[in-house]
Amino acid sequence: MTNDGKETNGKSAKQTKEGAQPAQVQVVGQYIKDLSFENPNIAKLLSEPGDNPNIKITVNVGSNSVGTNLYESAIDFNAQAANKHGVIYELELVYGGLFRLKNVPQQSLQPFLLINCPSILFPFLRRIVADITREGGFPPLLLDPIDFAALFMRRQQELAAQQGRSAPTN
């Protein structure tokens, strides 16, 4: 019995009906893993501002195990702005985090690391991207939210299609 008189049958209040422990997630740390900002044509841009830039953005997510129940999840972000004068700036940023995960079912581990963890990291990456582009002498690049679940599903479909093409036919 608990102090309030309720019977617990030896189970914690957080255990599920099947007896499994609930998932536990701890953000151990987050960090800039790699950062590069290049501003190759600043002289041309100052003398001839030119037209509005075309901005190309690429986002990839990866994860790996770094210890018992400890995983790294990282967002690999690239942005390139260009106009008729050439490349205005190129920003490459890998922002990562270490996550301690306990009681996460094996089938849920990869989706959790590639969807939930990047969703936790993204607001910090977004701020860094805005600050770096502003400090580079340009208007801040303000990123729209990213649907990491859709990104994950698209990647899974691409992998399935690649496996389908490489499978031998009878």
What does this structure look like?
- With 170 residues, the chain is of the alpha+beta class.
- The chain has a single domain, classed as Roll (Bacterial Protein-export protein SecB).
- Helix content is 32%, strand content 35%.
- It is built from 3 helices and 4 strands; from the N terminus they run βαβββαα.
- The protein has helices at 42-47, 106-135, 148-166, and strands spanning 24-38, 54-67, 70-83, 86-102.
- A 4-stranded antiparallel sheet has the order 1-4-3-2.
- Strand 3 and strand 4 (86-102) form a beta hairpin.
- The longest helix has 30 residues, at 106-135.
- The chain is elongated, with a radius of gyration of 22 Å.
- Mean pLDDT is 86; it is low at 1-16.
Individual helix count? 3
Task: Give the beta-strand count.
Answer: 4
Give helix and strand order, one letter per element, not per position.
EHEEEHH
Alpha-beta classification = alpha+beta
Can you identify the CATH class? Answer: Alpha Beta
Low-confidence segments, ≥5 residues, pLDDT <50? 1-16
Biggest β-sheet: count, sense, barrel? 4 strands, antiparallel
| Helical proportion, percent range | 25-40%
CATH topology: Bacterial Protein-export protein SecB
Number of domains: 1
CATH superfamily: SecB-like
End-to-end Cα distance: 65 Å
If strands are numbered along the chain, what order do they take across the biggest sheet?
1-4-3-2
Mean pLDDT: 86
Strand content: 35-45%
Query: Any idea what the CATH architecture is?
Result: Roll
Shape: elongated
